[in-house]
Amino acid sequence: MLTKPNMLVVDNDVAILNKCNSLLLSRGFQVSTAESSKEALQILEKYHRDVDIMLLSLELPGLGAMSVIEVLKKTKSKILVMAISTDCGEEAIAAIHAGAYDCIRKTFTTERFWTKIDRAVERFTLARQLEILKKQRLSILKKDSYDEDTMRTIMNTIPEGLIVTDHHERIVFYNSKVADLFGLQGDAALGLPIEKTLKNADLVSFITESMNLSRSGHSSVHQKVGSIEIEGLTMRVLINSIESDDGKTIGSVSMLQDVSQKKTMDQLKGDLVSMVSHELKAPLSALLMQLSVVLDGLAGDITTKQKDLLGKAKQRTKRMIALVNDLLDLRRIEEGKAVVEIEPLDLGEILHRSIDIMTLSSKDKNINFDVKIVENLPLFSGDRTGMEAVFVNLISNAIKYTSTGGRVQVELKKSGKDIRIKVVDNGIGIEKEDLDHVFDRFYRIKTEQTKSIGGSGLGLYIVKRIVDAHRGTIYVESKAGKGTMFIVSLPLEK
C-alpha cells in the first residue's frame, strides 16, 4: 500500500506558507517549507526523493517559480507541481503549459484547498501505481526471475482484463478475465499477433495506435483510453506503452474494465433528460411565437397592464427555451460529442458571426463592443459547432452581467503555440468565493444583482467541456464590481 506523498510548500508569503503547512500537517502529511525558489532548489537537490508534491507560489521574487518548474522539467522529475497564485490568471496558464498540474488561489477556503489537494494526491497516487505496475510488466517482458505461478495467480484475481504485448504486438500475457472475454483456451494465444487472437477491431486499433505514438516519441500520449463492445458488454480500455531504461518501446499493457451497468444507468438518465427536453422544445417555441403575436397587437388591442404581464411571460418562456437548449447541449457533450467533426476553422470569421448573433442583446443594453482580431491568424483544427458555442456563451455572459451602457472587449490573437481568445467586461464581476465554482455544472451565482438574470448554470460548464475536448485551457479573472475576464487558449499543434 502506498504511503501519503511528501509535500513541499514554497511561498514567500509567510501567512500562506503557514496556513498550507498547518492544513497538511493536520491530515498527517510530511511537509517541508521554503520561502524562495533558491531555497526550494536547494531542498530538491539534497532531498529530491523525499518530495512528491510541491505547492509552488507563482509570485516568488528572484529566480521565480518558472525557474523551479524548468529545472524539474529538465531533470524529468516526477514531482507533481500545484501552483499557488493570487488570481490563477495568465501566469498560471504559462505554469500549467510548462508542466504544473493545477492552480490554487491564495484566497482559498479550507474546503476548496482540500478539493484541489485531494485531486492532486489522487493524480500522484495513480501515477505512482502506474509506475510500479510498469516496472512489474517490464520484468515480465525481460524474463527476469519471478515466480510465474504466483504472478499468474495474482493477475487472475484482478477483476479487470489484463493483456501484455511485446514490441511486435504479439501477446506475452493475458489473465483469466481476458480468456473468458475472447474465448481463449489455456496459453494457446501466447506469442500470437493481437489481430489474430483478439477478435475486436477497436481494441486492436487502440493497441496499435498507442504503440505507434510511443515509437514516434510522443511521450505525452503514451496512455490511451477508449471504449469497446465485447459480447454485449461495454468495456473501458486503458492502454499504456512500456519502455525500457533507454526509452525504447518494448511493449504495451491493456486493462479492460466492465462499465456496462454504469453505462446503462447513465444512458437511462440521459435519455430521460433528452426526451423531456425534446418534448418541451416544440410547445415552448410555439408559445413564444403566440406571445409575440399578441404583444405585437396582431390579435387585437391589449391594455398596458396586459402588455406588461405578457412581456414578462415572454421573457420567462425565452429562459425556458434557453434551458432546454442547454440540456440538449449537455446531453450531446456527455455522449462524447463535444467534438463531432474536426476541420480547419477561421476563428476570426466564427467570432464575427457570434458577435452578430449577440447584436440585438447588446443594442438593447447599449453595450459598446471593442473587437480586436489579429490578421492572418493560422487556421485552427476544431469542431465548428463547439467553437461557436464557446464564443456565443462567453459573449452572451459578458452582455448579461454588464450594466446598460457598459463595455465588452473581445480579442483574438496568436500567443506562442496557441490561439488565445479573451473576453473582458466591466460588469458586476464575481466574488472570490464563487470563482472556483463558475465552471461547475448547474452552478449559479446568487446575489441581489444576479437574481433577475436568467440562466441554467450550464453555459460555462459546456464551454469548459468543449475547450477540454480541444485540449485547451480556460481561466477566469474577476473583481466584484469591476468586471470579469475569460481567457481561452487553444493549441495549434496536435
Number of helices: 16
How would you sum up the major sheet?
5 strands, parallel
Separation, N- and C-terminal Cα atoms: 37 Å
CATH class of the largest domain: Alpha Beta
Assembly classification: single chain
Q: Describe it for me?
A:
The chain has 494 residues and is α/β, with parallel strands linked by helices. The chain has helices at 14-26, 37-47, 65-74, 90-98, 110-141, 148-157, 176-182, 194-197, 201-215, 260-295, 304-337, 347-357, 359-364, 384-400, 432-435, 459-469; strands spanning 7-10, 31-34, 53-57, 80-85, 102-105, 161-166, 171-174, 223-230, 233-243, 249-258, 342-345, 368-373, 380-383, 407-415, 418-425, 473-479, 483-491. The protein has a five-stranded parallel beta sheet, sandwiched between helices. The chain is globular.
Reconstruct the topology from this structure.
Elements: E1 7-10, H1 14-26, E2 31-34, H2 37-47, E3 53-57, H3 65-74, E4 80-85, H4 90-98, E5 102-105, H5 110-141, H6 148-157, E6 161-166, E7 171-174, H7 176-182, H8 194-197, H9 201-215, E8 223-230, E9 233-243, E10 249-258, H10 260-295, H11 304-337, E11 342-345, H12 347-357, H13 359-364, E12 368-373, E13 380-383, H14 384-400, E14 407-415, E15 418-425, H15 432-435, H16 459-469, E16 473-479, E17 483-491
Parallel strand pairs: 1-2, 1-3, 3-4, 4-5, 12-14
Antiparallel strand pairs: 6-7, 6-10, 8-9, 9-10, 11-13, 14-15, 15-17, 16-17
Helix pairs in contact: 2-3, 10-11, 11-16, 12-14, 14-16
